[in-house]
Amino acid sequence: MPWRKMGLLLPAPVAIPWAVSHAMVPLVEQVGNVEWLYFSARDERLRGRVGRVEIDLAKGAVIGAAPAKPLLDLGRLGTFDDNGVVACCTVRSDGRVHLYYIGFNLGVTVPFYPAIGCAVSEDGGTTFERVSEAPVLGRNRADPFLTTTPWVIVDGGRWRMWYTTGTEWEQTADRPRHYYRISHAESDDGISWRPSGHACIDYESRDEYAIGRPCVIKDGTVYRMWYCTRGAAYRIGYAESADGLEWRRLDEEGLRPSASGWDSEMCEYPAISDVGKRRFMVYNGNGYGTTGIGRAVYDPI
Which among 3, 42, 125, 293 could bridge 22 via Cys, Cβ 3.0 to 4.6 Å? Predict the structure, then answer.
């Protein structure tokens, strides 16, 4: 396996007033010589908010403390993100920064309803404002159950999103179980999206019921996607594509749990960053982020 694990980067909980547990769904954004690590932490009611801290990814160092105020807080009561927000990716275009995130409502017949939101910064990423109190991609004809974990790039003038879509809820003995896989949408402006209903990464068997958090980069003419998938427990998979729609799974090139330690039970929520000539992955381990955020470096054989 070409990925070499380098241990914890940001242990959880993070020492900020609103973070009781978790540092989950990491994302690294490079702005000049500064590297920002975005994460979501939970309060005492398990509601996520978005935080950010400066890091040196190559050295595995956190620089300073995370700001006491969340970068993105809960939505107003009754809106789609009133019970939690989780950052997934940023896109810098035309002097603006788009932050795509997941918003959560609690459910009655099912535990939760996630949807995809967007907040925009006009000051280089210092502050963000929602483009709407409604999701930019919620439940629709192509995605009737849920939408979550978006990853967006601008590709030849097209805005392209790979995201997780629910295909059903199954009633088990103790609670409903979600089934979700990765789909694709396009946009002209990054705000109004056209979902395709096309399954980019589909289930390999009935035991594989959760495929999510895609991270897509384009190397020349090759699209590369990292994602997490689970049956009994999460692991990180990998796929390649020539067009971003039809993908060949090569999960043996992903990441597996360690024999012991903070990521010995699961690996999930990957995000890829290139620093200099090295490629890094940030990801979560046990407990969906209860142990914090780790990093790995790509050492091709």
Answer: 42
